[in-house]
Specification:
Number of strands: 12
Helix content: 55-70%
Shape: globular
Strand order of the largest sheet: 10-11-7-12
Order of helices and strands: HEHHHHEEEEHEEHHHHHHHEEHEEHEH
Radius of gyration: 24 Å
Structural class: alpha+beta
Number of helices: 16
Oligomer: single chain
Largest sheet: 4 strands, antiparallel
Length: 401
DNA sequence: TCGGCAAGCCAC
DNA sequence: AAACGTGGCTTGCCGA
């Protein structure tokens, strides 16, 4: 490698290979048990990794109800389908779901991350693409470190294997609900802006506003629905998509959306304005001036046009968040140096930055990184909502997150 | 043996 | 019907 490139090589992050080896073995053993169980139920060997064989077994041989076809005409066997069948009391779908989870974790993460350790540094060095997304986000590849599991307990075992060197800590600093905050700013939504200023639970506030349920003692399912709606809004919501996400009838999802627009009329205005704008000029812009091209929207079929419209609604929000964290990243090395800190910035995960620092610097890095991130929009843009950052230090990524 | 597509699933 | 946005990566499968 030429010296200039060697000097620019990214710091990489340490993983504990022993931990991942143990995990890989554990996953293998448990997958073998699920496989034996599944084959006993079916009465013969089959490939649990083959959606085609699974579809034939579930809907051909066993004639289970609710079969759906994929775009190419094959039986669909994705997780939501298997969950439905499992809820009806069928044993095989649950085993397949459990097997798939472990297969995913082992195949995509555990085994691959061990392979990805660079012998020269003993660390994993991802590559970031700076111009590969339409919205301005970075993307990460070889290996992708922007999709390390976090949702399930099994998945978090992988995240725990991302560790600091002895004497160091990992520090994770992430923006709290940055996209909803940007929606509140861009759409100029008074209730949302006020809620963020007061530091309220935004999903509970949404639920309360929509369903008239007090925030105190709110049932978790009510909040969960409001949260799904808030995410849906950012994605350019459709009744079909929300219905699918919440496993509810489309009519009910449509009613939720109508109620939402009644309570937050500024959001509908933002969406209508954005659609008109993209039709007119063939692009939309973030508040920092980044353009996202969405050309020829007029020539598309209705389905394609609606897809493009949702992308146009999402792009200024997702793109502004990308702009802000980029600004923070640019300022971070200088800010650390000026503060006399030897911390290094290791990873970016869209709304999160991960650092490694001597344990003695932990608190100072949390404070400094939070400050730089919170003010990263300035002075280019004066946001009318505060940005909040949560920062924590720990020996591994899971506990820092 | 290779490349590409389909299906599926991980993250934000 | 590209049936809620942005990505990367795996296995199975098929044809060159």
């Amino acid at each position: 490698m030429p010296p200039v490139l060697a000097a620019m090589e990214n710091a990489g992050i340490r993983i504990d290979p022993d931990q991942l080896h143990r995990l890989s073995h554990d996953f293998s053993m448990r997958m073998a048990e699920f496989e034996a169980e599944a084959q006993k139920l079916v009465g013969r060997p089959f490939n649990l990794g083959s959606p085609k064989q699974i579809g034939d077994i579930l809907f051909g041989e066993m004639s289970l109800p609710g079969a759906k076809k994929t775009a190419s005409g094959a039986w669909g066997t994705d997780a939501s389908m298997l969950e439905e069948l499992a809820a009806q009391g069928h044993a095989l779908p649950r085993i397949l779901l459990d097997w798939r989870q472990l297969s995913k974790l082992k195949g995509t993460y555990t085994d691959n991350l061990i392979q990805a350790v660079a012998p020269r540094t003993g660390r994993v060095h991802t590559s970031y693409a700076l111009a590969s997304t339409t919205t301005g986000r970075l993307s990460s590849n070889d290996p992708n470190l922007q999709n390390i599991p976090v949702r399930t307990e099994e998945g978090r075992k992988i995240r725990k294997a991302f560790v600091a060197e002895a004497g160091n800590v990992l520090i994770s600093a992430d923006y709290s609900q940055i996209e909803l905050r940007l929606l509140a700013h861009i759409g100029d939504i008074p209730q949302l802006k006020q809620a963020f200023k007061e530091g309220l639970d935004i999903h509970a506030m949404t639920a309360s506003e929509m369903f008239g349920v007090p925030v105190e003692g709110m049932p978790s399912d009510v909040r969960r629905r409001a949260k799904a709606i808030n995410f849906g809004i950012i994605y350019g919501i459709s009744a079909f998509g929300l219905a699918n996400q919440l496993s509810i009838p489309r009519e009910e999802a449509g009613a939720y959306i109508n109620t939402y627009f009644e309570r937050f009329p500024g959001i509908r205005e933002y969406m209508d304005k954005t659609k008109a704008l993209v039709r007119e000029q063939g692009y939309v812009s973030t508040i920092f001036g980044r353009r996202v091209n969405i050309p020829d929207i007029r020539g598309l079929t209705p389905a394609h046009r609606q897809f493009a419209e949702r992308a146009a609604i999402n792009a200024p929000i997702q793109g502004a968040a990308a702009d802000i964290i980029r600004r923070a990243m640019i300022r971070m090395p200088v800010a650390l140096k000026d503060a006399g800190l030897s911390a290094r910035m290791l990873l970016q995960v869209h709304d999160e930055l991960v650092f490694e620092a001597p344990a003695a610097e932990a608190e100072a890095v949390c404070v400094l990184a939070s400050r730089v991130m919170k003010h990263a929009a300035e002075p280019a843009v004066a946001l009318t909502v505060p940005l909040e950052v949560e920062a924590r230090a720990a020996a591994n990524w899971d506990e820092a997150h």
